[in-house]
Design goal:
Elements (H helix, E strand, L loop, with lengths): L3 E8 L5 E7 L2 E6 L8 E4 L4 E4 L1 E6 L21 E7 L7 H8 L5 E7 L19 H10 L4 E8 L1 H4 L5 H13 L3 E5 L6 H6 L6 E3 L18 H8 L3 E3 L9 H9 L13 H5 L6 H10 L4 H6 L3 H7 L15 E14 L5 E15 L2 E4 L1
Parallel strand pairs: 1-4, 6-7, 7-8, 8-9, 9-10, 10-11, 11-12
Antiparallel strand pairs: 1-2, 2-3, 5-13, 13-14, 14-15
Helix pairs in contact: 2-4
């Protein structure tokens, strides 16, 4: 038998204080403090614990520019145990990303870019011949456990003169592969109403809180009817903060309108990690605390809600008999300056700080 590790005095987001015992990477007990002993004990007083954070929208291919970064740099080093690369690779090189994922401490899944070239260029849907449905189907069949969906970046700078046609092709590919679509929204054309009409249950709108003119809210802050219809039929909303896709003003409109918070993701890559406005997943989560969401709601958006969309609910649970997949974090009191993608600055009085993860049988500190 391996060493029994006990993480002592961890606080769950519901306020309970617990010890968590782990042996050979498996959770063996979750008890009130002091009821179990271990060969190795770590006092975690003052820290919260949740199931491992899941970031549903990142760019984890370091050699790509501008949208690239190292898997573990935006994964376990940030308190994230599971990443979903959102379309960095298409069918041409998805195998390279799969191979890289096997060497990382962070669990990585991928959304296959419907353009076979992926983000080798940032106008990857401007030429329809780059959307090779046969090659994409072959890629999806070759990596069924790794590829969890399809990615289509449907904004003017990406599609150029192709209009809505790439999304129509993506819809066809989704139906053929039974994989959901994550659709990036941004500047028109195509218009947001054209995009919304094509989305089906389980599909994802990422960047739903962007402040561009082609967004999901009227000028008075009320949601478009097309957004309400999409939500009603089961379309999933994902933050995808990124460099240009999160507005405090729009986020406040969404909250006022009662639009449910589904998943919080970063759309992180080297540039917006080092230079902002993303910096880290902790920074993005803090923005939603500032907006008035509870700690429980914020953490749910990177744990159980993301795990449910992935079809892997066990990733969003802390349970005896399951693999230990944990994120430890602090909730600190103090002023924290927060900037959105529009340059709007707000000051939070509390902030979240990742402290480490327990994954793959070992503790990794942030």
């Amino acid at each position: 038998m391996g060493t029994e590790n006990v993480l002592r005095n961890l606080q769950l987001v519901d306020g309970r204080i617990m010890d968590i015992s782990i042996q050979d990477g498996i959770i063996t007990a979750i008890t009130p403090p002091g009821q179990v002993e271990g060969e190795t004990e770590l006092d975690c007083s003052g820290l919260y614990v949740s199931s491992g954070w899941i970031d549903l929208h990142v760019h984890a291919v370091p050699e790509l520019n501008p949208y690239g970064d190292d898997i573990d740099e935006i994964g376990v080093k940030q308190g994230v145990t599971t990443l979903v690369d959102a379309g960095s690779r298409g069918a041409d090189r998805i195998g390279d990303l799969y191979t890289a994922s096997l060497k990382a401490d962070t669990q990585l899944f991928a959304l296959l870019n419907i353009s076979r070239i992926g983000l080798e260029r940032t106008d990857e849907l401007s030429q329809l011949e780059w959307i090779d449905l046969a090659k994409a189907r072959e890629a999806a069949a070759s990596y069924p456990e790794f590829i969890v969906g399809l990615k289509a970046r449907i904004s003017q700078s990406v599609v150029k003169d192709s209009g809505i046609q790439p999304l129509l092709l993506a819809r066809t590919l989704s139906e053929e592969t039974k994989l959901p679509l994550m659709v990036h929204i941004g500047s028109a054309p195509p218009s947001i109403s054209e995009v919304l009409e094509l989305l089906q249950p389980g599909d994802v709108i990422t960047h739903y809180l962007n402040g561009k003119s082609n967004n999901l809210f009227h000028e008075d802050g009320t949601p478009l009817q097309g957004l309400l219809d999409a939500i009603a039929r089961g379309v999933h909303l994902d933050v995808g903060h990124g460099t240009a896709s999160f507005s405090f003003r729009v986020a406040e409109q969404a909250k006022t309108a009662g639009i449910a918070l589904n998943t919080i993701s970063t759309d992180i890559y080297r540039g917006n990690r080092l230079n902002g406005p993303v910096y880290s997943i902790s920074n993005v989560l803090t923005k939603f605390l500032y907006l008035g969401y509870s700690l429980e709601e914020v953490i749910r958006a990177v744990t159980s809600s993301a795990a449910a969309w992935l079809g892997k609910p066990e990733l969003g649970q802390i349970r005896v008999g399951h693999q230990a997949n944990l994120t430890m974090f602090a909730l600190k009191k103090g002023e924290k300056q927060l900037k959105d993608s529009e340059g709007d600055i707000r000051v939070a009085q509390y902030y979240i700080e990742a402290k480490g993860v327990f994954t793959n049988g070992s503790l990794i500190t942030s």
